[in-house]
Amino acid sequence: MVALTPAGDFRASYRQDMTLFPTRNSRRGVWLGVLLLALLPLPALLLGDVVDEDGTLGGLLGALDIGRYGMGLLIQIGFLGIAALGLNILVGFTGQISIGHAAFFGVGAFASAWLHEHGVPVFLAMPLAGLLTAAVGLVFGLPATRLKGLYLAIATLAAQFIIEDFFARAQWFTGGVAGRMTEPPSLPGIRFDGEEAYFYVVLGAVVIMFAAAANLMRTRDGRALVAVRDHYLSAEMMGINLAYYRTLSFGIASFYAGVAGALYAHHLQFVSVEAFNILFSIQFLGMVIIGGLGSISGSLMGAAFMVALPELVQAGADALANGPLDHALKLGANISFLREMVIGATIVLFLIFEPDGLAHRWRLIKAYWKLYPYSH
Amino acid sequence: MSESLLLPLLLNGLIVGALYGVIAMSFVLIFKASQVVNFAQGEFLLVGAWVCWYFLTTWQLPFVLGFLFTLVFMTVFGIIIQVVVLRPLIGEPIISVIMATIGLGIFFQALMKWMFGVFAQPFPPIFPVERVNLLGLEVQPVYLLSLVMSGFIMAAFGWFFAKSKYGLAMRATAFDQQVAQSLGISISKVFAMAWAIAAVVSGVAGVIVGVVNGVSSALSFYGIKVFPAVILGGLDSILGAIIGGLVIGVLENLAQYLDAEYLKIGNMYAIAPFYVLIIVLLIKPYGLFGTKNIERV
User: How many separate domains does chain A show?
Assistant: First the structure.
């Protein structure tokens, strides 16, 4: 419980009020978390050759090993978390809706793969892909200067279909139906191939992108975005340029989606035109809602939840396999539909019962421990 | 393709457009009555079509009886959705409500795929003849049925809102909820009724499309095609919904014709309405007949 605020939390200056980490221990906690994550791939990296016969690592280091599959899941949580954070800046902080986030994610993925094929090193291609996606996002964000709420939701829905159509059509950019192959990032001497090495790339990106977002929300621009969300007419009267900040928010969200898409592309090393459909967009919205609207750490929690959900469904179906329920409902053959149903149901249930998301629940749990046993 | 195909394409556009108009109308009905943008409209079509298909094939009911059963089912379905999911969300921000309907949409789409499979299933034939001759054009009778049904639903809507007690209550609610409530109108009943009507009308549209094309999850795409229609017509205008639906229906067929004849881009049929949508939103976001939202502080 390192992140608890001590009793008598006096904030004497504006600077203290705006600080990211209210206590020294909360800062240490975050760094410790990052450090622990950074240690995770080490067993597999160091002992890559001494793998036991059943594919797991032996000895003490083996106990720390979460396996290639677990590493893959963590990487997914990383890049999906970045994209979800971008959407959260748009939805949670600025109060605009986008139902086309997966399309922008796809633009980033293809842009990075395309840039790399034209000789740009991957580590440069990723941020460039982010910028390119931001530019595309700004074009579709133009209606956002005049629209809000459901009109914007519908405009982004149109953007989703138009961009998906473009993917299927633009062979020079996406490789058409065959998709586009790409390579993992590399520095002179190191090639970030394989889950363990790539994990560091994603971890670095997550730290940079989340720190950037947390700091953005402390600046004048970040506060302006929140003001636009809370009461846009008042914000306009305070001298905030609505059109500018709505478009800016759209651009930032697209930038995050683009970078996340680039990370996705070089992880999978193959980008297919069919991956970025509307269901994927809705999953991003689900992450934001489940994690908590307007919460930076919540975006990561939401992404983790969304990645864990299919695994849980799969585990549940496996547990029931060959039982009477399995035979009656044909769970095994319909597992993908079951997953979609669970995603849809989770979104609805969270909206009804936990509209503030996991981040809020996390705060309640912390408060419970802090006050224990005198919770009243 | 040649010039001689233009006329059938236009007719096809009108027929499909009338269906869009009907679906758009029920979309507008929900929006006007309960201020909810229903992203699960397409899934209403899907559920209605599959349920009717189930009655006709598994239970071997005659079409009329199965159709009536479907109407009853959709009424209950609409009310349950409103009471269970949408009622707890009254007063929540618009993002939450939109997300809830999207979640519902995914849920039912997956459920239908699970229960009935992913392959398109044809309806048992309803009409004895394959084609009838209309003004020198060979037309399938189901298309005529579709046109007649659409016309009937539109007329029924017109009567309902102009004359019936409940329709007037609904209009009053749409105008001002507080005033309507103080005049003795039960808002919760009006909301439930709006959803029930929308579900029934969408279910009918689903059955019609199912009879023409077979039932498959592609039906839910009609729920998305509805957005260009309602935005063009104006989100809160029933008349706008009909006109928007007709325009979009004709337009996508025209786009397909132009594409096949001259442009050779491909896939314009599916995408053209969304370009229209973006353009309308940029130029005239409140549509042709929508009321402009004036905000006072």
Answer: 1
